[in-house]
Write a structure and sequence with these properties.
The protein is mainly α and 453 residues long. Helices cover 76% and strands 0% of the residues.
Length: 453
């Protein structure tokens, strides 16, 4: 039962363009600091092994499902879920699951653009030599002064949202594809240059050991759950992005091959980022820190005391901005597509309206670091609350519902048609994973983040 639906928004020019775009959606700020850090702190190579197993068993099958749904529906995630459900004889209320993904991406972008603005600000700080020979106290003061100034944060947040809006307004091929095809290779080149720079630090072997030496004694049950959770979230699943990008995938492109390529590229970039970061950190006798502190406080100290550190610090934060920007594009697109389809307006108008709303919502995050730092929602500041709501509740819930729908409600003929595979080992392995393994794994992640498990 082959359908010939076409997206009103256009298509990617090729499978390769889709892989680049989807990888750009998956690769973001978290890949640059979170994966290398949690891998090193949870058994190095032992964690990487568990993580790779989770990617193979859970991540790739889930990505296949989202791309498959997107290409089947060829609409925004809410309309796609509703139409595929109707085709399968299920309730159109499944469209609410797609709507949950759109809303999650909308909320995430409102604070993600603020953090991306930090990186953009640091490009100029690095180029100006603000890190050169600076002490830990001076670097700490630079960061503290930045987040303490609502006007500075608002300015950089506005720049990120404005540039994202301008690209998305140009459409799929002229905006998203052209930008990503230009930026992604530059990001990779900068990353390779930084790895080469790290190799000259004299601490490359220590960085390798930190990331890859199997330390099974350090791999706790908590670390195993971290590997499972990161495998789910690193691929940008349940945000509406992958499903939306899947709607633009040409019919003759293999979903299985594309999913494997995206997962491999995302994982590879995370590992390479670790090889770029940690030798530099160790060369300066610094301890790798978790979260934004590693990027915005620890690394600037290291760059400030290394030969050619000014230039390579600039390269590093440029790479970080590119990684963040390819993600902001993917987070904005589902909301814009929904607005176009729901209200029958032009892409430019829809993009301006949605971007403006996200910009306004982002002011809450801007103020949470300064003026509103004592304002709390459920015991958290605005930024932490938004992060907790999306990452710990909306994404795992959305992912779980997508898995249940795909495995138990979507017609088998439609799945075979989109996946372009015959009934055999690959299909039955995928179906088994989606029906039994993935729901249990996501539920465990969900309960862990809620503090129940």
């Amino acid at each position: 039962m082959t359908l010939n639906r076409q997206s009103i928004h256009g298509e990617w020019s090729s499978r390769w363009a889709f892989v680049l775009a989807a990888t750009g959606a998956a690769v973001g700020l978290g890949n640059i600091w979170k994966f290398p850090y949690i891998a090193g702190e949870n058994g190095g190579g032992a964690f990487v092994i568990i993580y790779l197993i989770c990617i193979l068993v859970i991540g790739i099958p889930l990505m296949m499902a989202e791309i498959m749904l997107g290409r089947r529906g060829r609409q925004n995630p809410a309309a796609t879920m509703a139409s595929v459900a109707e085709e399968s004889g299920a309730s159109r209320h499944w469209g609410l699951v797609g709507g949950l993904g759109i809303l999650a991406g909308f909320l995430i972008l409102s604070y993600y653009s603020v953090i991306a603005g930090w990186a953009l600000n640091y490009v100029f700080k690095a180029a100006a030599g603000d890190f050169t020979n600076a002490s830990a106290q001076q670097i700490g003061a630079l960061f503290s002064n930045l987040v303490a100034s609502p006007w500075q944060l608002l300015f950089w947040h506005s720049i990120i949202m404005l540039t994202t809006m301008l690209v998305v307004a140009r459409g799929v091929r002229q905006g998203l594809e052209k930008t990503i095809v230009f930026m992604f290779p530059i990001m990779l080149i900068l990353l390779v240059i930084l790895v080469a720079y790290s190799m000259s630090s004299g601490y490359f072997e220590q960085g390798l050991a930190f990331l890859f030496h199997p330390k099974f004694a350090q791999l706790s049950p908590e670390g195993t759950l971290d590997a499972l959770g990161h495998a789910f979230f690193t691929l940008s699943l349940a945000t509406g992005s992958i499903m939306m990008y899947g709607a633009y995938l040409p019919k003759n492109a293999s979903i299985t091959r594309a999913s494997v390529a995206i997962a491999a590229a995302d994982t590879g970039i995370a590992l390479i980022a670790g090889l770029a970061i940690f030798p530099i950190v160790f060369a300066n006798g610094l301890q790798p820190g978790a979260g934004p502190g590693l990027i915005f406080q620890t690394l600037p100290i290291a760059f400030g005391h290394m030969p050619m550190g000014r230039m390579f610090a600039t390269f590093f934060f440029m790479m970080l901005v590119f990684a963040a920007f390819t993600s902001t594009l993917s987070l904005l697109e589902p909301s814009v597509a929904w607005c176009i389809e729901r209200f029958h307006m032009s892409r430019v108008r829809a993009t301006v309206i949605i971007s403006s709303l996200i910009w306004l919502l982002g002011i809450g995050t801007v103020l949470s670091f300064n003026v509103w730092k004592n304002v709390h929602l459920f015991g958290m500041d605005v930024f932490d609350f938004m992060d907790y709501l999306t990452a710990n509740i909306m994404l795992p819930l959305g992912g779980l519902l997508i898995v249940i729908f795909t495995a138990w409600f979507m017609r088998q003929e439609a799945k075979l048609d989109e996946l372009q595979i015959k009934k055999g080992f690959i299909y039955y392995k995928w179906r088994l994973t989606m029906r039994y393994v993935a729901p249990v794994a996501i539920l465990i992640v969900f309960l862990k983040f809620l503090g129940i498990f």
